[in-house]
Queue: 2 jobs
Job 1
Amino acid sequence: MTKVAIIGAGPCGLSTLRSFEQAEKKGEKIPEIVCFDKQEDWGGLWNYSWRTGSDQYGDPVPNSMYRYLWSNGPKECLEFADYSFDEHFGKPIPSFPPREVLYDYILGRVKKGNSKNKIKFSTTVTSVVYNGNNFEVTYRDKKNATSSTEVFDYVVVANGHFSVPFIPEYPGMKAFPGRIMHSHDFRDAEEFRDKNVVVLGSSYSAEDVALQCHKYGAKSVTIAYRHNPMGFNWPKGMKEVYHLDRLEGNKAIFKDGHVQEADAVILCTGYLHHFPFLPEDLKLKTGNRLYPPKLYKGVVWQNNHKLMYLGMQDQFHTFNMFDCQAWFARDIIMGKIKIPDTSEIEKDINKWVSMEEKLESADQMIDFQTEYTKELHTLSDYPKIDFELIRKIFKEWEHHKVENIMTYRNKSFSSPVTGSIGPKHHTAWEVAMDDSLKTFLDQPKNKL
Ligand SMILES: Cc1cc2nc3c(=O)[nH]c(=O)nc-3n(C[C@H](O)[C@H](O)[C@H](O)COP(=O)(O)OP(=O)(O)OC[C@H]3O[C@@H](n4cnc5c(N)ncnc54)[C@H](O)[C@@H]3O)c2cc1C
Ligand SMILES: NC(=O)c1ccc[n+]([C@@H]2O[C@H](COP(=O)([O-])OP(=O)(O)OC[C@H]3O[C@@H](n4cnc5c(N)ncnc54)[C@H](OP(=O)(O)O)[C@@H]3O)[C@@H](O)[C@H]2O)c1
């Protein structure tokens, strides 16, 4: 019997488990599957942890999400085609849910099946060796401090790429009297109430961590971009300046001459794709981009078609793109999709990579990833979903952010699966301090 190892039980690993379960439901004989996750429970980044640094076994903590994190994109864009929000919650819910609500949704469909017993939790994959025929996968059971090796025919790498922080150094950091941290370790903006915070970066973490600090009462928030400013109309108390030059004592000195007193510096400088368990010839080496090279259809390792990578792209699309990738990977493993010859694969990869390199605007990037996901969608029996609506919603969302970065999360969209419209949330995001599932779902009737 074919054996498949899945490394990671985050959204990508769970999509893979779900894809096989759906095939089994249709009466197909599926391979033997073992999924490994180094955490104690499933859900990947969405499984919030208060921990930073190492866990109780000395293993680096993968979690990068924080308390009070709300979805930064409309939930309609990430909806599962085979399990709508309406089905999970029994009613339409607002378009920008907090983390706990999305976590509940991600787990909803897998809880209905028997996937959990295929997962070995608190188990870190430490090595994958290809012996010319199959893979020898070594894993460490952290609770019992034991290591084992098992042989698999296929390996699906689904360990995420937002867990290992990229931490640059700037002059003066060693002598800075305040706190310096990476967004990976950011857990609670309350810590920065009444403080002067400097945030480095110009992408989603910089934007959202800065907004969180402002929302929870920071005295000032100064965001320093390196290449392109985000350029939003920041509220009073927030500003965007050009590139940090150095720290001198508690002063941050920027390349545009700006000087700011700082109590804390938060590095929102991104993450490293990190695969310490893979040998060099199987290791994806890439920055955070929309089409990492060497992956056929963004999934299959060019030089070994029994190795798949899921979710390694920079992400506009998330959960339904992961599903399309998982369904595609499943069908390759089950022999339903034939991999073309080497030159076809190279041509296909080059086509996508060269298209990606020409992208200039956010709208073009949205189009690119929508086209990629649509193409993958045609290759398997993943259920119907309206990708044209998703494309449109993403673009409207981008424009809402430009209109007002403080209010974009108060907007509503319609579902690409059921067509239902997300109701307006009872409390505007700027003043919604309680991010619990209960409070979010309890829509007081008189406020609607
Ligand atoms: C701060 C932050 C906020 C985000 N917010 C959103 C959002 O609002 N909406 C959205 O759609 N996306 C968001 N994302 C994007 C996020 O990448 C995806 O939503 C999703 O979590 C990716 O799923 P994944 O399975 O690829 O990776 P992960 O969620 O990272 O899961 C990977 C899993 O692999 C496990 N693992 C890693 N290494 C090993 C190993 N060696 N052995 C065993 N297990 C291992 C980890 O424990 C983890 O459980 C956010 C990302 C970050 C960093
Ligand atoms: N739900 C939410 O609200 C939420 C919140 C946070 C994050 N996220 C998600 O988290 C993921 C990761 O986002 P991310 O912003 O952490 O990573 P990212 O998108 O890869 O961005 C990395 C940023 O770091 C900057 N940078 C890198 N090196 C630098 C240096 N030496 N000095 C200054 N700046 C430097 C880059 O700027 P250059 O352009 O200059 O290279 C870029 O702006 C995304 O999928 C995002 O959607 C979601």
Job 2
Amino acid sequence: MTKQENMKTILKTTIFFLCAIVSAQQTDYQQDSTQLREIYTASLTNGKSYDWLDYLSNKIGGRLAGSEGDKKAVAWGKSELEKLGLDKVWLQPVTVPHWVRGKKEEAYIKTQYGNFNVDICALGSSIATSKEGVLAEVIEVQSVKEVEVLGDKVKGKIVFYNRPMPADKIETMKAYGASVGQRYNGARVAGKYGAVGAIVRSMNLKIDNYPHTGVMSYGDNAENEKIPTAAISTSGAELLSRMLKEKDKFQVEFYFKQSCQNLPDAQSYNVIGEIAGSKFPDEIMVVGGHLDSWDLGDGSHDDGAGIVQSMEVLRLFKELKIRPKRTLRVVLFANEENGLGGGKAYAAEAKKNNEKHIVGLESDSGGFTPRGFGFTCNDKNFEHIQQWKSLFEPYNIHIFARGGGGADIGPLKKEGNVLLGLRPDSQRYFDFHHTAADVFEAVHKRELELGAATMTSIIYLFDKYGIK
Ligand SMILES: [Zn+2]
């Protein structure tokens, strides 16, 4: 063979292999694209997520850890998963806090012209006021740091945390993150300096009359440093702040009364269902949301939507006869809202059993139109996942961003695995989050189903290609 002929042969062979690679990729792309189309069609035309949500929201309702609703939700979740013909369904015991709200809270701004009623709700874990309620002067602040600077000046007063969620953040979850510290830590810090109560502006970007509950903590405060704390609606917060600013016009005091209680810990459960992997059963992929919810509404967005979408992932695998190569699990986590007991118990059990979780996917950002995912993983996996992005373009899914996952799957983080969170449009989430407005009617059927299909699709790809 001459040198020239030799070169020709090498070139031909190279071209042959390149063509083979390209065509293999094309075939896979076409197969994957067809599979995704089937998943979306099944979810949108014959899905189960919306009916499930209807039942969970309207027949069971609010389901705070330890409540009757919590027990009913666990029984319902188990029985629905059992109907799907999975390989295994089981309950995992979780010890949970048991806080109850008691009677509807009362609050008003007291002035020399009369009382102005405002809407409040006790924060989760808060203690009650005395039976008569608390009446005191108010001191408005923007942060816990400001209270630390004021020190003893807050003694005998009600501290009013009024830092709004920053409206300029495009992702409203980030705006929440920027403000929620005052809700969690406000009473703890104010109590240390002798305040008699803490009122926190609701985590909401719009001005309305819904107070938003959420968990708080007293940290290691002594009993006498524990003070009652509540959220005030944004419109109530605006009114109170305005009156406080016009000192020459109004003599302002604030009154509130609440009868919430921390009861002894209760028993709850993570509800788990599994399809065993046909080829790599030791590689576990988890999808989940949290089964508990706050008590004011029925928790349809937070996190009923995430629950039914996660269940739908396994149901769609069964319906479309996709036998996963890797083990696929759904976990309906207990007690995310006020303790994260479910997420911690699940991760502890996984560690004890030496289980290898390669992927964790959580939906806990509301049931709105899906836009994509946020990923917590190393560079290699991030690059690997980016290759699938174009498959989602027909469905207007375009966010494949870094950072994300969820509180429940967080404890499963390990070097080399992938945690991801579904990212729905977040603009209206805080109209509902932790309020009486978070009800079934607030969730849109198609948006919910698109989310379920989007989750199923990415799990299908993780199952097929694994992680790097
Ligand atoms: Zn949630």
